[in-house]
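Entry for the shared binder. Reason: the reviewer on the internal report wants the predicted structure included alongside the sequence.
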Amino acid sequence: MDNSPHVPLFVPLIKRYQAENRPVLLTARQHSQTTELLQNAGLDGLYQVIGEHDGKSKVKKIVGLGRRAYQLAHYVKRAEKTVGRVGVALSHGSRSMVLAAKALGIPLITMYDYEHTETFIFNTFSDRVMIPDRIPDATLDRIGLKPEKRVKYPGYKEELYLNYYESDADFLKKVSQENGVLINADKIIVTLRPPASTANYHSEASDRLLETLLERLLGNESVFTIVLPRTTEQKNHLEQFIHARRLSTKQLLIPKRAVNGLDLAYHSDVLISGGGTMNREAALLGVPVYSIFAGVQGALDADMEKRGMIQFIRAVSDIDRIQLRKRTPNAPGYKVSDRVEQSVLTQIELMKT
């Protein structure tokens, strides 16, 4: 697992295989809230931390990729002496796993759902690549994913775990107690997730939108803002910005540790994010979502925007379109199912035979 969104994605599969007494080798990169979320999911002690994020520098990313792939291959080879031969390697966009599995001759399934990132390693070395059916074949042709490697699944990857989601009615109370901050549920609860500043598709335009949003939200007494930085560095930068601009922190919470993103989205009146996964999670839960992602729009985002499930804030002037108001949780218009999970399980079994 390379990043925070991979934890909820794979937890249902991990727990399914655990219930069947089938061994799972689980590794995690020390990045964002990945390890904290694994602990929250009850998997503490069941995973091996290998590597960390290497920052924005492309040179450091390349060097780090090779180093982590080597470390992964070494760990798996040693672990196989205990658990037996690994039948299938599965990841969502982990380049280091692709290289490690290829070196060890392990059948490999890679998932990804954003076509405008660097996909060469995935497309070249994976045995199967699982992508959403909303990404057109013409796009996959252009980025070099051969038809014989493609496995398209219906819907959105987030359905794999949203299908199991049950809201925690006491979530806001628990977060308040953990952080020593009173979250006034009578206020308009806005969750703000900054863009991934270290991603290879990051755009500085997203940062400008984020800063303007912070000024607007923290200056609005009817709003309680919960900000979820992705890294410690990003948290420090945001706190410095808030201090430098002398923005009010009376109605602000930056959680001390990772929280359940689904519960936070569900209990929010509005979610504003510079990423993809959390936007889709909230949209599928029926929460009003505004995206400040300023990179090249992917097929999934375009689809959700067309359906009216996400609105895009592309310029500072668009911020006025954000409707800040209380919402009443109700059944979302989109019905999630187990079809994504079944597609993944089917491919795992096929790769083992």
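Summary line for the report: Residues 189 and 269 are 5 Å apart (CA to CA).
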